[in-house]
Write a structure and sequence with these properties.
heterodimer; A: about 300 residues; MetI-like fold; globular; B: mainly alpha; two-stranded antiparallel sheet; 2 strands; about 70% helix
């Protein structure tokens, strides 16, 4: 053995080189994608592009703006957050604070969460159309509006509900991780002082876990801002003259706009600057969200190790 | 704020009375319980237990969602699954004289009307409609219109269509006789997925081995989040990149005919799958106990030998799970294949031919179908199929990972 270690270990070197090259290629590809998009998209950046509307020509690089898409995306993730945060946090509280770890029910809930995370996004789209738009929306119309069409159509609220269902696993997993990081001593101290379990959860555990829960919400928003397939049938519009006025209106969306511009543009070469610009804005948005989540999480983990 | 101050005061009182009770009177009230439980029982709070029940109910939402997805996507496809749809257009013509002998339901189906619609017509209208239908049938010479193209046989087996010279698998839902054979779509999905896995498994697992076993720990801190950042790129952006940038470069390199094809889509799909394969493999490799590695090194193995011959075999089920979950991710991905695969429904083994996947078909066609029609139901059937496939692959992946973790933790 000592003899072998003295000579050059060619196979070992090749192994390191091979796996290292795989890592390097992935990072290179990431860099190429980001570099290409930033390089080409930066030229289109201007205040007019970001804050302008589509009324003066959606396919004209000089006049087109993407404010309606930014607004629509923001409205979508805002409504989605209202839906997904309470449900995600409550589920995580149950799983981490109340549930017995080995019970069948806990296992079934965990299996359901894992499976939900793997359901294809297009299936969520079908589900949103079949359940939210037709079943829930149709039900509301029949009960409250005497069958007049108000809710049984693609709308911001249904797209947000579908997206909330899609991002639920992200929210639950992140919140649970945050709850797990809260030291047991804090809970025991609180209980020993006579606080009830619920008081302990809401006044001791949750405040401690807040940064982690925030991470979960940020990750969910990042995911929700980028997904297109689930909203294609539940609320997004190809073109709208006005911003959505209420939750039952349709909306425009950055990701869907990227899809429209890359596949349905009348002149792909001419509209390329708008396309790259829109992609850059979408990417900056989702990346900033993801990056901040990574940073918050890294701080959280470092804090846990130190404490 | 007020509430937080009250709690200790009240509980201190409760605790002291508890103490005097134990000291003074010999008979204990109840069997000893954990402190907090008995306290909560003596101060029953309706609101609290209500909130706790609510939390429990909400925690069932993931189960409910899985169930609802299955129910509502499956529900729309039930008539097709049970063979209750029939789009046969040319039947044996019904003579006007036979109208009175024919059951109403059959007449309605023959004329392509719903029964409620049919009930609103008077006898003369029905006669005219039957005559018109007979004329239409006499003119319609396409023998395919005698087939129920929504039957299981027509969806999965090749059929010798009118105007073709051999039996073929054809998906052509918008044509004179709609053709709903889903074999080309399944082949398209598998082709794109296969290319994606061929790219993502070697790269993902290779990078996982490097990061978890060989890399300098200081670099590891940077490489891992960077690769995970790849999963933060929205799939529509990867699709865009494949369509606008990669497609032209690859066509220049390989010189094939169709610019958008299974190779372009598969490579872009691979980029989306790499983070999945990497994260799960890396997790599995890192969860192999350090003692394995140390034992191998103590026996004189090099780091590379230990990684390849000791750590990797121990974590192999996790790597397998990573591939299965990567498969689930790849087959369910929509926007990338919708934009980069070319979407032609051809049955071909070549990856340089354009292909159309199950997901892209749903995305491209659902917006233009009649609600509740055959085409609509078959698209939901595709959704059900996708849901079932990903459900099974997720289940397999999860079970394998779970078992591996318990085994490694038990041994370690």
């Amino acid at each position: 053995m000592t003899l072998r270690r003295k000579t050059l270990d060619w196979s070992g070197l090749a192994f390191t080189a091979g796996t290292g090259a795989a890592t390097f290629m992935i990072l290179l590809m990431l860099a190429i994608i980001l570099g290409n998009i930033i390089w080409n998209g930066a030229a289109q950046m201007s205040l007019r592009f970001i804050f302008g509307g589509t009324s003066e020509g959606m396919f004209d690089p000089q006049r087109a703006g993407i404010f309606p898409m930014i607004f629509g995306t923001a409205a979508l993730v805002f409504l989605m957050t209202i839906g997904v945060v309470p449900v995600g946090v409550a589920t995580a509280i149950y799983l981490n604070e109340y549930a017995r770890k080995q019970s069948t029910l806990t296992r079934v809930i965990r299996a359901a969460i894992n499976n939900l995370a793997g359901v294809p996004s297009i299936v969520f789209g079908l589900f949103g159309l079949g359940f939210f738009v037709q079943f829930v929306g149709g039900g509301i119309d029949r009960l409250l509006f005497n069958g007049h069409l108000h809710y049984a159509k693609p709308a911001l609220v249904w797209a947000a509900a579908t997206m909330a269902a899609l991002t639920l696993p992200v929210m639950i997993v992140a919140t649970e991780e945050a709850l797990r990081a809260v030291p047991h001593g804090l809970r025991e101290a609180s209980l020993a002082l006579g606080a009830t379990k619920l008081e302990t959860v809401f006044k001791v555990v949750l405040p401690q876990a807040l940064p982690g829960i925030l991470t979960g919400a940020i990750l969910a928003i990042g995911r929700g801002a980028g997904e297109v397939a689930p909203i294609m049938f539940t609320g997004v519009a190809y073109y709208l003259a006005h911003l959505p006025k209420g939750v039952t209106d349709q909306f425009m969306h950055l990701g869907y706009h990227v899809f429209v511009l890359s596949t349905q543009s009348p002149d792909i070469e001419r509209t390329k600057p708008i396309l790259f610009g829109t992609v850059l804005v979408l990417l900056v948005l989702t990346f900033l969200l993801n990056l901040s989540a990574v940073l918050v999480r890294a701080r959280l983990r470092a804090g846990r190790v130190a404490g | 704020m007020n509430d937080t101050i009250q709690i200790p005061a009240r509980s201190v009182g409760a605790a002291s009375s508890d103490a005097t009770a134990v000291l003074g009177a010999p008979p204990p009230r109840t069997t000893p319980k954990p402190f907090s439980t008995s306290l909560a029982r003596r101060h029953p709070r309706r609101l609290e237990s209500l909130v706790e029940k609510l939390i429990f109910l909400i925690s069932l939402s993931a189960i409910l969602l899985i169930f609802l997805i299955f129910a509502f996507v499956g529900r729309e496809s039930l008539p097709v699954i049970f063979g209750r749809t029939d789009n046969t257009r040319a039947r044996k013509p019904i003579a006007v004289a036979d109208i009175s002998h024919t059951p109403r339901a059959e007449l309605a189906l023959y004329l392509g009307l719903s029964e409620t619609e049919f009930a609103t017509y008077d006898v003369a209208t029905v006669q005219t409609l039957v005559e018109l239908k007979a004329q239409e049938l006499a003119q319609n010479s396409n023998p395919d219109s005698r087939m129920n193209t929504t039957s299981w046989r027509m969806m999965f087996q090749p059929y010798h269509w009118f105007g073709y010279n051999k039996p073929e698998f054809i998906w052509q839902p918008v044509s004179e006789v709609p053709k709903y054979n889903i074999v080309p779509l399944i082949i398209g999905s598998l082709k794109a997925t296969l290319v994606a896995l061929l790219v993502s498994v070697p790269f993902g697992v290779g990078a996982a081995i490097y990061v978890s076993q060989l890399a300098n720990p200081r670099w590891r801190e940077w490489i891992k989040p960077a690769i995970e950042l790849l999963s933060g790129i929205p799939s529509v952006v990867l699709g865009f990149f494949a369509l606008i940038v990669m497609a032209s470069i690859l066509q220049g390199a390989f010189g094939y005919a169709s610019r958008l094809n299974a190779l372009v889509a598969g490579l872009a799909l691979g980029l989306a799958v790499i983070p999945v394969v990497f994260t799960i493999s890396e997790d599995a490799l890192s969860s192999v106990p350090q003692s394995y590695l140390q034992a191998a090194l103590a026996l004189g193995a090099s780091r590379q030998q230990a990684a390849w011959q000791v750590v990797l075999p121990a974590a192999l089920p996790g790597v397998f799970a990573a591939c299965v979950l990567g498969f689930g991710r790849a087959i369910g991905e929509t926007m990338i294949v919708l934009m980069a695969s070319g979407n032609a429904t051809i049955v071909s083994a070549s990856i340089f031919d354009s292909c159309r996947t199950l997901t892209a078909t749903i995305a491209a066609e659902l917006a233009e179908v009649v609600f509740g029609g055959d085409h609509y139901r078959i698209l939901f059937l595709l959704g059900t199929l996708l849901f079932a496939v990903t459900f099974v692959s997720n289940l397999i992946g999860d079970v394998v990972v779970h078992r591996l973790k318990t085994r490694l933790e038990g041994k370690g």
